[in-house]
Design a protein that fits this description.
Pfam family, one: PAS_3
Number of strands: 13
Catalytic activity: 2 GTP = 3',3'-c-di-GMP + 2 diphosphate
Bound molecules: guanosine-5'-triphosphate
CATH superfamily of the largest domain: Reverse transcriptase/Diguanylate cyclase domain
Helix content: 40-55%
Order of helices and strands: HEEHHHEEEEHHEHHEEHEEEHE
Number of helices: 10
Strand content: 15-25%
CATH topology of the largest domain: Alpha-Beta Plaits
CATH class of the largest domain: Alpha Beta
Largest sheet: 6 strands, antiparallel
InterPro entries: Diguanylate_Cyclase, GGDEF_dom, Nucleotide_cyclase, PAS, PAS-assoc_C, PAS-like_dom_sf, PAS_fold_3, Rev_trsase/Diguanyl_cyclase
Radius of gyration: 35 Å
Shape: elongated
CATH architecture of the largest domain: 2-Layer Sandwich
Structural class: alpha+beta
EC number: 2.7.7.65
Number of domains: 2
GO molecular function: diguanylate cyclase activity
Length: 327
């Protein structure tokens, strides 16, 4: 075989090898492109936003297409995206968002990070924005934070509605016993802390059993509802009020001495006495007995205040009902 023939044979082999390598590279490229398209479709279809932020350069590196949908704004130029992001955060939550972003550098991950944003159309939305931080580079400097933000507004609304429902009395829509005493406990702590006065009132409908027995439970329920409405409108803004038993209600007057609470109890007595209920062709009137007490230095807890108000209220019953007894 001549030298020329050997040379052209080697060239053909090399060309063949290079052609195979090229086809392999092209197939690899097609697979990468297909995978990129798949990721693109996945990111565009999930109702969440993936993001990456370079803590070192203070620049957003990546925002998935969810940004436009969740924030209701165009993605804009990447370098400004963090500023854009913060501008959309509710002003009261901005410090928290920045602070927790820095915190993730120490903790490695923040699983619960919830705050409010204002969308492009002005709507207020709640975000759950978990974030994670990778290990530092070899030079120990570059820090990339990645995050997953989801719109959780509906969940937050549901939670607060459940909370509201768990704290109100289903019939009168006033605070239920548990919620009333929780709030009263907080007020008592504040009164102790700041040395301010506080008054506590128990109010019980007189002969309510007779109303039920004579006119039926429906009329009884109506009495409870209207009495509660009447108390809420008669009391002042900062006062607490709740239904703590069948026909028993309680009120707490923060920063109010016993003498200052008395005119309020008297006003309640008059407003309730003026209520009229249509029952069996006549107008039914109701009265209430009230026990009113003020916080005293010896009162160890809310229980002590409650016990004295209860004793005062039963004294009012024994004295003939339709009256206020102070203790
Ligand atoms: N309609 C109605 N009645 C209720 C409700 N909860 C409790 N009651 C009734 O309230 C009545 C309370 O009766 P008592 O404890 O004997 O008190 P009272 O008749 O008001 O008598 P005094 O308190 O001594 O004036 C009972 O008949 C209970 O059935 C309610 O949600 N709706």
């Amino acid at each position: 075989m001549s030298r020329e023939e050997v040379g052209s044979g080697q060239l053909a082999v090399r060309l063949g090898e290079e052609g195979a390598a090229l086809r392999q590279a092209q197939a690899g490229l097609r697979r990468l492109q297909a995978r990129e398209q798949l990721f693109g479709r996945l990111l565009a279809s999930v109702n969440a936003l993936l993001w990456a932020y370079d803590w070192q350069t203070r620049q957003m590196l990546y925002l998935s297409p969810g940004y436009e949908r969740i924030f209701g704004r165009p993605a804009g130029a990447l370098p400004d995206a963090l500023a854009d992001w913060l501008a959309c955060v509710h002003p009261d939550d901005r410090d928290y968002v920045l602070g927790s972003l820095g915190e993730v550098l120490d903790k490695g991950a923040i699983e619960r990070r919830e705050y409010r944003i204002v969308r492009g159309d002005g709507q207020l939305r709640w975000l759950s924005d978990k974030c994670y931080c990778g290990d530092p580079d070899e030079d120990g400097r570059a820090r990339i934070i990645v995050g997953l933000a989801e719109d959780i507004t509906e969940r937050r609304q549901l939670e607060s509605e459940l909370q509201r429902l768990a704290s109100i009395d289903g019939l009168t829509h006033s605070s239920n016993r548990r919620h009333f005493f929780e709030c009263a406990q907080r007020e008592l702590q504040l009164a102790r802390q700041y040395g301010t006065p506080l008054a506590f009132l128990l109010l019980d409908i007189d002969n309510f059993k007779r109303i039920n027995d004579t006119h039926g439970h429906q009329v009884g329920d109506q009495v409870l509802q209207r009495l509660a409405d009447c108390c809420v409108t008669t009391l002042r803004g900062g006062d607490l009020f709740g239904r703590i038993g069948g026909e028993e209600f309680a009120a707490l007057f923060p920063r109010c001495r016993l003498e200052q609470a008395l005119p309020i109890a008297e006003r309640l007595q008059r407003s309730i006495g003026a209520l009229g209920f249509a029952a069996g062709g006549e107008t039914l009137r109701i009265t209430v007995s009230q026990g009113l007490v003020g916080l005293e230095p010896d009162d160890a807890d809310l229980g002590a205040l409650y016990a004295r108000a209860d004793a005062a209220m039963y004294q009012a019953k024994r004295q003939g009902r339709n009256r206020i007894v102070r203790l």
